[in-house]
Design brief:
The complex is a heterotrimer. Chain A is mainly alpha-helical. Chain A is about 75% helix and about 0% strand. In chain A, helix 3 (about 80-85) crosses helix 15. Chain A is globular. Chain C has helices at about 10-25, 40-45, 50-80, 90-115, 150-160, and strands at about 5-10, 30-35, 140-145, 165-170.
């Protein structure tokens, strides 16, 4: 069985042209839209987060399944591992924010005379912000590197010790991620509206991360399968990924609903302003997000056959990916740009530019190692997998 | 189904199908031992004490409780939430673990589901008696009445009515549908005519036909699919009783998922408390093995850590919010007059489960048993802390007050414990505590060795 | 009067093999009785997928519409009241009850459909073929309303697949 993947020239050209289209769109944006520096930084932050989340999902998926002693996912594990290789790039891109703090985060301004923001300054201050960022990335990149290395070493040896070490690393990552996933969403997303707070926010962002990651995972499998790879991935694997997408879309809706409902119900102005801005400024987008991230996947993936049909699954996954991108957009833009923000050439162009680069990194990583791992004690289970 | 050789066997002792039936049916067929009689007399006396106290409450009025104008909710709702929480492990095990195809659930799902039902029954008692006139409890349901009024659909307390009754009914259906084949087994085993008749009636005429099995499996799967979000919704709605208000310490958006995690946490603790004893007394150590205990302990540490993170998140955001009432509420929790309750909660729920990171302790029965009781206590105090510390400091300092439960309240709580254990003890005498048919489906792939069947 | 052949197995693998061969030879299997759900047996016997999920979906949809519709009617049309400054048509507040009723309807509909279709229920008088079926015996029941030759034929196949107690029986 040939499990090596080589990026075809055509694929490379496609990735490149996605980025080129992105650059062209950005150029158009500069010509016609007269963007402020805020618009640019907003796009940087949005796409940084979006692709960072997809990449983080890779590590999370591996770690979660490793500590749960899961067998079915083993034959697929190279793909989330490849997703995690984008992390260092994401780190560099995030540190670019050093130059954009003033545009992005209102709390960095000096002449505020705002007692509420002053009260938060022990946490919301620029040096600490970047120290935290460095800590998160150090943890994520370090552990994901070790996990990936551990998995590669297992390929070369049938020693059981790698499996055991992998479990320890996975548990460490889970513990680190459990805290950092919440704090990073407070730092990078919630503090865009520096007066607003919600205890659920971190978990809500986290579940969005998980849903978009699953969707990306499904799309990569669909692409590789269409190129004639991954013949060992059968309908049962797809069915499980489909169930994940279905189930976590519902879970996302559940958290969205309770965050919204509790704030709506209590009707405290300092909290409701968050949703008031979004609902009044972006009514169409507000409901589109609910349709794309919940209603559509919920109805489209309800039947068993829908989850086992790769083309259909890939279509739903693409819709969810767009939905999650819009979701992050709506979390950021009212706070940074106000209620008049619009999605234009710049926003779409920047997303395309990032997408091309992201795909380039991921598929390069995929082509460096065989698509199928070896010697994992659960690999055989993954092959003989049926419900 | 291929199973990796490095996985620990789930059923020990090289069992045949027939042996499985015999082992699991044994506690029902044999005479109850001394331990059982001691247990039932203890729990029955507790139950009667509780009934007496409930009777006294209804006769005399809610004034027999320690509630006052500031603290209108105290012991009763703490117990309500505690019991509902415990009632979450059963459906979690059967529904969510079924969806995630965790085979180890087969040995524990039956008793955990039974526990769920009994716990929800106990929970339901508290709102009922708190109404003061339990005979008029039907007022909470929307029915056409002479007052031309509807119940308040906007109230989380009414959502509770729907959530808890739906949860009870669906759990009951789920549990009973799973029981039918096993009741069939009992019907075919018992000798006495009367027993045969009763089990025959309860088995719904189960024959074991392949068509029935096919539908039965489909039914279980879809019911699990429905029950999984139901589990999440029930405790989320319970949490909304508090979180929809504007009371500092109650109104926080993390409540729904955090209550659910806490519920599963406490539910698993109660399952462990019961099963560690049950497996020993009923000689089921080959079916509920150390591997099962370890798996449950892993869920404990996962949910316990989620709860811990939620505590810290609340604490941090209360400071971050800049709202002085929020800041005060949390400071008062940790350092106010009820600091000891907060300390118990933190120690039992956050710190003690972290010991389970060590594999040796996860597989140590004595340690697990003690820990599970600690968690039960800790989770009780969590609800106490949330309810009482948030209420006892009103916005108006002249209303500040303290809460002390009366003996009547304590008696009612002890009574529900009695009811719970009475039900459980009767259950293990009447129905198989382990799903016989389900265990048979995993014994070949996950049994200790390949099984050899007896010849005819 | 209807005649049938019954045969016993002690292992589900033998049963699966025998069923497969019988199906290939187009010998009609009336029923297979097993102590637990045998994985893949329904596929071997060519049983149709159960329609229970559809029942659940329809009942759930009815529950959704009923619960949401009823709350809306009660609070918007029948008796509008101001409660806590909320609008009469308070969508977020209606969702929890709508969800619960949806689940309740779907679960009950599926369970009743299951019992009805399988003719199970309190006081159902189904024939119990053998008391060992709920313990460790797998029984296959084959239509025998043909010639005696048919019985011999079936018996040969079954014996070859380790079946025991192959008998020709008659329904009363």
């Amino acid at each position: 069985m040939n499990t090596n993947y080589i990026i075809s020239k055509k694929t490379k050209r496609v990735f490149l042209s996605i980025s080129v289209i992105g650059i062209l769109l950005i150029a158009l944006g500069f010509l016609f839209q007269n963007p402020e520096s805020k618009n640019i930084w907003m796009s940087v932050l949005l796409n940084n987060l979006y692709f960072l989340f997809l990449s983080l999902f890779g590590v999370l998926f591996i770690a979660l399944h490793k500590i749960a002693h899961s067998g079915w996912h083993v034959s697929l594990k190279r793909i989330p591992e490849a997703l995690s290789t984008f992390l260092p790039y994401a780190a560099v891109l995030m540190f670019l924010l050093i130059f954009g703090m003033h545009d992005l985060y209102h709390w960095t301004h000096h002449d505020l005379h705002d007692p509420i923001i002053e009260g938060k300054s022990a946490y919301l201050n620029v040096p600490f912000f970047f120290i935290r960022m460095a800590v998160y990335f150090a943890g994520w990149i370090g552990l994901s590197y070790l996990l990936r290395k551990n998995s590669m070493s297992q390929d070369l040896s049938d020693d059981y010790k790698y499996h055991k070490q992998g479990k320890v690393l996975a548990a460490l990552f889970m513990a680190f991620f459990a805290v950092s996933s919440s704090t990073m969403s407070w730092d990078w997303i919630m503090s865009v509206d520096p007066h607003w707070f919600s205890t659920l926010f971190g978990w809500y962002v986290f579940i969005g991360l998980f849903v978009s990651g699953i969707a990306a995972f499904i799309l990569i499998i669909a692409f590789l399968k269409s190129q004639g790879h991954l013949e060992f991935v059968n309908k049962e694997h797809l069915h499980d990924l489909g169930k994940y997408l279905f189930g976590f879309s519902i879970f996302w809706m559940y958290l969205w609903f309770f965050q919204y409902m509790l704030i709506w119900y209590s009707h405290i102005p300092e909290e409701t302003i968050y949703f008031a801005q979004r609902l009044n400024g972006f009514p169409v987008l507000f409901f589109t997000i609910l349709v794309l991230n919940f209603l559509f996947p919920f109805l489209a993936l309800m039947t068993r056959n829908a989850k086992r049909n790769i083309k259909w699954l890939a279509m739903v996954a693409s819709v969810v990916l767009i939905g999650q991108w819009l979701n992050i957009y709506l979390m950021l833009s009212p706070g940074i740009l106000g209620e008049t923000a619009q999605i234009g050439f710049i926003e779409i162009g920047a997303a395309c530019l990032y997408l091309g680069g992201f795909l380039w990194v991921i598929f390069n990583a995929l082509s460096k190692k065989p698509l199928l791992c070896k010697n994992d004690p659960f690999l055989e289970e993954s092959f003989h997998y049926e419900t | 189904m291929y199973v990796s050789p490095i996985r620990e066997p789930l059923i020990k002792g090289n069992k045949t199908y027939s042996q499985i039936t015999k082992d699991i049916a044994a506690p029902i067929e044999g005479k109850p031992g001394k331990a059982w009689y001691m247990g039932i007399s203890l729990s029955l006396s507790a139950m009667f004490l509780g009934l007496a106290m409930m009777g006294w409450t209804i006769w005399e009025g809610i004034g027999t409780w320690g509630l006052n104008r500031t603290i209108g909710w105290g012991w009763g709702i703490t117990n309500f939430v505690w019991w509902v929480g415990i009632g979450h492990a059963g459906t979690f095990i059967s529904a969510i673990l079924l969806l995630f195809r965790q085979k180890w659930r087969t040995s524990i799902n039956r008793s955990a589901e039974a526990m769920t039902i009994f716990a929800v029954l106990c929970a339901g008692l508290f709102p009922l008696i708190h109404m003061g006139r339990p005979l008029l409890a039907f007022f909470v349901f929307p029915y056409p009445n002479t007052r031309d009024l509807w119940v308040n659909f906007n109230s989380p307390l009414l959502w509770d009515v729907f959530a808890i009754s739906t949860y009870l009914l669906v759990s009951l259906l789920f549990w009973y549908m799973g029981l039918i084949p096993d009741i069939g087994t009992m019907r075919d085993r018992v000798k006495s005519k009367a027993k045969k008749f009763i089990y025959g009636l309860l088995s719904f005429g189960w024959t074991g036909s392949v068509k029935h099995w096919q539908r039965h499996e489909k039914l279980s799967l879809i019911l699990a699919g429905l029950a999984a979000p139901l589990v999440l919704s029930v405790h989320s709605i319970v949490s909304a009783d508090f979180a929809t208000s504007i009371i500092p310490g109650w109104h926080t958006t993390i409540f729904p998922p955090y209550f659910v995690a806490g519920a599963i946490f406490s539910g698993f603790a109660m399952v462990l408390t019961l099963l560690i004893v049950t497996r020993k007394v009923l000689n089921l150590e080959n079916y509920i093995t150390l591997a099962h205990i370890e798996s449950m302990n892993k869920i404990i540490i996962a949910t316990g850590s989620i709860v811990g993170i939620a505590y810290l998140t609340e604490l941090f955001i209360s400071w971050y919010s800049g709202v002085e009432y929020e800041q005060y509420a949390f400071l008062n929790r940790a350092a106010g007059p009820y600091w000891w309750a907060y300390a118990i909660m933190m120690t039992c729920n956050v710190i003690s489960p972290q010991l389970l990171w060590f594999r040796k302790l996860r597989r140590n029965l004595v340690f697990t048993f003690i820990l599970s009781i600690f968690i039960n206590i800790g989770m009780w105090f969590e609800r106490f802390v949330i309810i009482v510390t948030s209420l006892h400091r009103d916005y108006l300092p002249s209303s500040w007050s303290m809460y002390k439960p009366t003996l009547v309240e304590v008696g009612i709580f002890v009574g529900t414990l009695g009811l719970f254990f009475t039900c459980f003890l009767l259950f293990i005498r009447a129905f198989p505590v382990i799903a016989i048919a389900e265990v048979k489906t995993v014994v070949k792939s996950s049994g200790e060795k390949e099984i050899k069947n007896e010849t005819l | 009067m209807r005649r049938y052949i019954s045969a016993y197995f002690t292992d589900e693998e033998d049963l699966l093999r025998a069923s497969k061969i019988l199906m290939e030879k187009e010998i009609s299997i009336l029923d297979v009785l097993t102590p637990f759900p045998v994985h893949g047996l329904d596929k071997v016997l060519g049983l149709k997928e159960s329609k229970l999920p559809t029942v659940g979906f329809i009942a759930g949809a009815i529950g959704t519409i009923f619960a949401f519709g009823f709350q809306t009617w009660a609070f918007v049309v029948d008796y509008p009241l101001f409660i806590g400054g909320k609008p009469h048509f308070a969508i977020p507040a209606f969702i929890p009850i709508t969800f619960e009723v949806t689940v309740l309807f779907a679960a009950f509909a599926m369970v009743f459909a299951f019992l009805f279709r399988s003719k199970l229920g309190l006081g159902a008088k189904n024939k119990i073929h053998d008391e060992r079926i709920t313990d460790d015996r797998f029984v296959i029941i084959i239509d025998a309303n043909e010639s005696d030759e048919h019985f011999e034929n079936v018996k040969n196949i079954l014996e070859h697949e380790d079946a025991h107690d192959i008998q020709l029986k008659e329904n009363q």
